[in-house]
Amino acid sequence: MGTDINYVVLENLYDYLKDKVEFFFDSPVQSVLAAEDGYEVSCKGTVYSCTNCIISVGRSGSKWMEKVCRDLSIPTKSNRVDIGVRVELPAAVFAHLTDELYESKIVYRTKKYGDKVRTFCMNPKGAVVSENTNGIITVNGHSYEDPARQTENTNFALLVAKHFSEPFKDSNGYGESIARLSNMLGGGVIVQRFGDLSLVLPKRILDGIIEMIYVLDKVAPGTANDDTLLYGVEVKFYNMEVEVNEKLESRYKGLYIIGDGSGITHSLSHASASGVYVARNIAEK
Fold first, then answer.
1. DSSP secondary structure letters along 108-149
2. What is the pTM of this model?
3. What is the mean pLDDT of each run of 10 residues along the chain (285 residues)?
């Protein structure tokens, strides 16, 4: 679909809904509280009441979601964080894969540590971009449907998933600290050739990425070229996993937590499906 067509899809969704749904923009929600007959949502001095409340804040709302769960004593558990780099190389290197599959999902378990490294968000003939998440500059990638906006390069993320056990619970904080170090050293995103990779990433993660690149070189010769560019760091933050039932309903009846803000879904398609699923459950009540 591409980033450019995505804007069109979102505009069409809004045009369809704007006369059926009330939208409130630039209206931060300060609190969500349980009331006698449902819920009270406080927003800029105005309190809205509802019987059913659906919370969907995405990964960027992770800290806010943690506060809501604390206020309502909703159980949560630590989730993972994915840390790595975005690889950029000539589109011809991966053309035999992207021309057939567009986005290749390749997962590899390293021999050295047994960690799982995966490709993610592959953008054939796309562009590398920076993004701001809660004041931290990280890297991402876009692709375009319009041939006039396409480039001669393909980019994709290489991510190492890190899960933490007790007593450590702040997986997002771990990822943030690495991203902040990158920001401190490079004033934002750091770009290095594969032949020069070092400095920011912890050794275990760095070793996993290097091992993965050499393995990918067997599938797509040229991946491990010294001139392959690596942008860092790329971090995928996940909300702590919120305790919900099979209907994505919390311990409070009528309070649903969906999308990546729940810590259960991890993609646009999964998040969208969770919204449809909950809407159907409410409609059938």
1. EE-TTT--EEEEEEEETT-EEEEEEETTEEEEEEE--SSGGG
2. 0.79
3. 87 96 92 92 92 92 88 86 94 96 92 93 95 86 93 96 74 84 87 81 92 97 96 83 94 95 87 96 91
